Each structure stands twice: as C-alpha cells, then as structure tokens.
From TrEMBL:
Transmembrane segments: none annotated. SUPFAM superfamilies: Outer membrane efflux proteins (OEP). GO terms for molecular function: efflux transmembrane transporter activity; porin activity. Coiled coil: none annotated. Its main location: membrane. GO terms for cellular component: cell outer membrane; efflux pump complex. It comes from Gelidibacter maritimus. The keyword Transmembrane applies. It is found in: Cell outer membrane. This is TolC family protein. InterPro entries: TolC-like (IPR051906). Signal peptide: none annotated.
C-alpha cells in the first residue's frame, strides 16, 4: 500500500511541477513521503522482521559443541585386589555435540511474536503521529506564502494605478491644470512600491525554501500556490492518530500480559548428545570411546513468589495510565477546537467590517481622484487616500488568509 502511495505521489508531483502549481493537500502528501522521519516506518518494519525471526528460531533445534581436556590430582580406583581393572588416567579428554529441541512451551513463542507485532504497530503509529504534527507547521508556511503572493498582486495593482495616474498628472502639468512637481510625489511612491515588492519577494523566497525542506521537493518563486477555499470539517468527533496510538499501546500491553501468563507454563524439551572421549560413559573402560545419550526434559517453575502476578498488575496500571492520557488529550484537544472556532468567528467578523471600510475608502478615493484632476488637491493628498485604501485592502487580504489558516488548523486539530 505504501509503495502504491509513493508511486502515486511521484506521478502527481511530476504533473504538479509541469504545471508549476501546488496545493496544501499536496504539501501534506509530499511531507508524509519525503520528510526524513518517514523513513523510520520502513526501517521499523525491517527491524521487527529480524526480531521476529530471532524469536521464531527458538522453535528450531539448538546445537552446541563442547570440548575439554583436564588433568586430575586423583581418580576413581576400584579397591579390589587382583581385579585387573586399570585405574583411570589423570589426563581426561571429551568432545560432545548436543542437540536440544523445544517440544512444548505453553505457546510462549507465539505470544512473543504477538508482542513483536504489537510493538511494530505502536512504533509505526508513533511515526505517523509525529508526521501528522507537521501539518500545522506546513499550514503556517503555506498560508504565509499565500499572503506574500496576494500582497504582491495587490502591490502590482497599486503600482499600475499610480502609473496611470502619473500619466494623467504629467498631462495636467503640461497644460497647467495641475500644480508642478505633483508628478514627483507619484514617482516617489512608485519607488517605494518597488522596495515593498522586493521585500515581499525576499520574504516569500525564505518561506518557500523552508517549506521545500519539509516536503522534500524543490520549489521556487515561480511555483503558484493555489488559494483554494478551506472548509471546516463537518464532523464533530476527534479522528486524531494520537487516539489510535493510545489504543495500540493498550493492545501492546495486553499482548505482554498474555506473554507473562504463558511464561510459567511447563516447558518440554527433547535432547540428544553424542561425543568422543576418554573415558566415555563406561568409567571402567580406560580408553577413548564414542557415546551418546537421548531423552526428554520437563521444566516447570511451580512457584515464583507472585512475580508473574505482580508483573501483570503493573501492566494493568499502565493501561489505566494510558486511559488518563487519552482523556487528557481529548480534553485539551476539544478546548483547542473551541478556541479555534472562536478565532474563526472573530476573523469572519473582521472581514465583514473590512468590506464596509473598503467601500467607504473607494468613495473617498473616487472623490480625491476627481479633485486631483481639477487641481483642487495635491498629489500628496491623493496618495494618502490611495494608501489608505491599499492598507485596508491589504488588511482584508490578511484576514482572509488568516481565516483560511484558522480553518486549516481547525481541520488538523479535529483530525480531518
């Protein structure tokens, strides 16, 4: 599934680059695949497979080889006169190969494998949670870039308007309708706008470079960031990956409880040992001999001083701790959601006021435009009213971007 996602993201990225556009959702998807932390999920999978193979090897025959050479100060002697039984050599040698085969251990091996599977799910979900927390940072960068993008367009519109007005004022000066030097005020304003455009582009480039590092995708100032309308999630229930992580932690504890329960189960093993040494199994034969033994062995820890019980009680307490963490997370998240909803409502109120203010500013500017053409006011007075309108329009843009950011953050908080 993950490989399909990577292929899909790769193809989509190629199309995106050819169109030189990018969306907020695409930034989310690219970060999930390309952020360095994302590599941990696959590494954890490989590590878990190795650990499970180690556990499974416990079911396979276990071979061991031993060899020893000793010299003893005393050996066993048979105290029977004229028995013709030679005493053992004081230097003795032995080499053995032993095989142990687990026959039954109460399902402890399978329980250990279940624990490893639970651990993998928990660790991979933790990676997902960490990646999910990148979303709000991406939101901040993305909408800051959008603000720079919209501010640039507004500055260009103001620049064009002043250039048109400069042509009118120059013509008015030529025919004596407008006071001399009025064009200088407009030219100075154009230079100021050029400075503002440079600053906006510089800030935008810094934001884009930071975002590019997070999503692992080269971006430049020519890429268009789509300003799509963000709608807040219609559902009211939390759908955060943290909640899944809490449940997986409890599942891991339950698998550990099952393992602990099986640790005291009887263990039955079969064994075989073959060897060669002097002496062999016949201690009275003072020569090198081959020998072997086969058998079964039962091991059962009948009483462990309630160690097993106390371990399970400790795990039960951990489950209660996770329950409290879950409730705390839900409470804090719902509080954050309420605050974000209030922020959305506040900004929506600001936007309504902004629209009314801009309508009034446009009426004032229209009057100032007529007065400038008739020589009633100076270019400075006109620039003042134009700047007032620009600042209010810029404020409207800021509030609209802030509203989009607040809605996007709301969706991230609720788990959209």
């Amino acid at each position: 599934m993950k490989r399909l996602l990577i292929v899909f993201i790769g193809l989509y990225t190629s199309v995106m680059l050819s169109q030189q556009t990018i969306t907020l959702q695409e930034c989310y998807n690219l970060a999930i695949v390309n952020y360095p932390l994302a590599k941990q999920s696959e590494l954890l999978q490989v590590q878990n497979q190795l650990e499970k193979e180690v556990v499974s090897n416990g079911k396979l025959p276990q071979l061991s080889f031993d060899a020893q050479a000793t010299y003893q100060s005393e050996v066993i002697e048979v105290p029977i006169p004229n028995s013709n039984i030679e005493p053992l050599n004081k230097d003795q040698y032995r080499a053995t190969l032993s095989v142990n085969q687990l026959i039954y251990n109460g399902g402890a091996t399978d329980a250990s494998l279940a624990v490893k599977s639970s651990q993998l799910k928990t660790r991979q979900k933790q990676v997902e949670v960490n990646l999910y927390q990148l979303k709000q940072k991406i939101n901040q960068l993305y909408f800051s870039i959008l603000l720079s993008q919209e501010t640039h367009l507004l500055l260009k519109a103001k620049q064009e308007q002043i250039q048109v007005k400069l042509s009118e004022v120059t013509s008015g000066i030529k025919y004596g309708v407008i006071l001399p030097s009025s064009d200088k005020v407009l030219e100075a304003e154009l230079l100021k706008i050029n400075q503002q455009l440079t600053e906006v582009e510089s800030n935008k480039l810094a934001l884009i470079e930071t975002l590019a590092d997070i999503i692992g995708q080269p971006l430049n100032t020519s890429v268009h960031f789509q300003n799509t309308l963000v709608e807040t999630a219609s559902k009211t229930e939390l759908n955060r990956p943290e909640l899944e992580l809490f449940q997986l932690k409890k599942d891991e504890i339950e698998s550990n409880e099952a393992l602990i329960t099986k640790q005291n189960a009887p263990k039955l093993l079969g064994f075989a040992t073959g060897g060669y040494g002097n002496p062999g199994l016949n201690m009275l034969d003072n020569s090198f001999q081959a020998f072997y033994t086969v058998g079964v062995k039962l091991n059962w820890n009948v009483f462990d001083w309630n160690t097993n019980k106390k371990q399970r009680e400790s795990l039960s307490i951990n489950k209660d701790i996770i329950d409290t963490e879950t409730e705390t997370f839900k409470l804090n998240t719902n509080t954050e959601l309420n605050q974000q909803q209030k922020e959305i409502e506040k900004i929506e109120g600001f936007i309504e006021s902004d629209l009314e203010i801009i309508d009034l500013r446009k009426e004032v500017l229209k009057s100032a435009d007529s007065q400038l053409k008739n020589g009633v006011i100076t270019s400075s007075a006109y620039i003042t009213e134009l700047t007032n309108l620009y600042e209010d329009e810029n404020t409207l843009i800021k509030h609209k971007i802030q509203l989009q950011l607040a809605k996007a953050n709301y969706n991230v908080i609720i788990g959209q």
